[in-house]
Amino acid sequence: MDQLSQLREPPGPGPEEALAVAQEFMADPVSYFAKMVATHGSVFKMPLGPVETVFLNDAETAEKVLRLDFAAFGMSQQSEGAMRPLLGRSMPVVADHRYWEELHAIIMPMFTPAMLRRYFEQTVKTVAEEVEHLGHFAESGATVPLLNFVRQGIFTALARTLFVRGVETDDVPTLLGWFEKSNDYMSARYLQGEAADTDPSPQIVAGREALGEINAYVYRLIAYRRANLVDEPEDMLDVLLAARKSDASPLDDEEIRDNVVALFFGGQETTPSVITWAFGLLSANSEKRERVLEEVDRVLEGRAPTFQDLAKLEYTEMVLDEALRLYPPFSFVGREALEDVELGGYLVRKGTPIGFVGWTIHRDPRQWPDPESFEPERHVRALKATRGKCAFVAFGYGQRKCTGERVGRMEGLLMLAMISQRYLLDRKGGGLSGHQVINSIKPSDGLPVHVRART
Ligand code: HEM
User: Fold this and answer.
1) Radius of gyration over alpha carbons of the chain, in Å?
2) pTM more than 0.85
């Protein structure tokens, strides 16, 4: 404790600069983080919304928080509060550790090998439909806005894995539209707190209304499914409906709603961005694309993928990993100090929100030489073992690591392999897109591509 009190607090702009910081940060959070690292080093603080947050930008301090000293850190109360209207008290945000343990025990059965195989079947079917769809673009020569295209496909696949029964494919664009509309309101919640709940700006009002539509839809679905229960769980919602907490009580409608919305949100914000980036990077790097095509042709021999094929698509998976390294979906992931702690040689006080930043951690040249270059080969197993445990944190690390990683990887591999089997996607105008952050880190132009049938 004595030693701690000798330490300085992390450097960085103070509360008096909050407005200027918010403007620059909101315009491009990840470039702001990179600038702060260049100015202050890998641990700094800055005002974010009503409080100061400490950001970690290197693998060593991230490992201290996520692994070595994890009991001294919890989920951020502030993030949970900010995200409450969208994510409620769902597993990804809930700060109460005991309640998280209850949810964890309930949600893990969604990701057993048997359930993964069910999702695999649904996902292959959905991606095959998407590939057929691309054929029309190849014939007409029209440009495809790839991010939207992939998002629609992944959302459909996710809808079919979350809810085999009760959601129509036609509902997907409407649901996606509501999620998109809710973004402005949710960003305002982060910066203004509860004041956003009464903000009369038209976009924020529209965001609140969209969230109301999402809730009404999900509650209708829960009622329908409660009235039509099955013996063997077929999808994620069946698992939630059948679950019992440690006191043997079932989840109530609000608890189910929170976790359904969180799975929808988590699944559709992350995987589509990564897949789109992977295609963008391959379009800009034709040699690497050739390696993917060679592997896909050799492993699949012109047929639809089987579950066993996934493990054989090794280079394709390395492409996915490299896209995740360069463009981890979340600009940062939150925690909170549960006691006074030392991080990176600085004092971080109890209650301080903390964020670890994938964008900068994944660009640390000590772990990732020539960090801006697209080198899927970095992810061969032998090299992975030489890096710090938290040098790659796209899915987080430790107890709260992403539960859906295997589903996300499966969706990504299937999209990359099944599309590459038939078509080449070339970015309109060539080169690589810039980035923008709207929930996740996305190509700023949505990645318009020309579709060429492979001969
Ligand atoms: C490429 C795809 C994905 C990426 C990069 C990703 C990334 C992440 C990250 C960074 C976290 C936070 C980890 C932490 O706090 O340490 C997380 C949590 C979570 N993700 Fe994902 N995710 C992906 C796909 C999915 C999918 C498809 C699902 C479900 C269908 C999902 C469900 C979850 C859940 C439930 C949590 C909360 C885990 C917990 O707090 O215990 N994710 N994800």
Assistant:
1) 22
2) yes
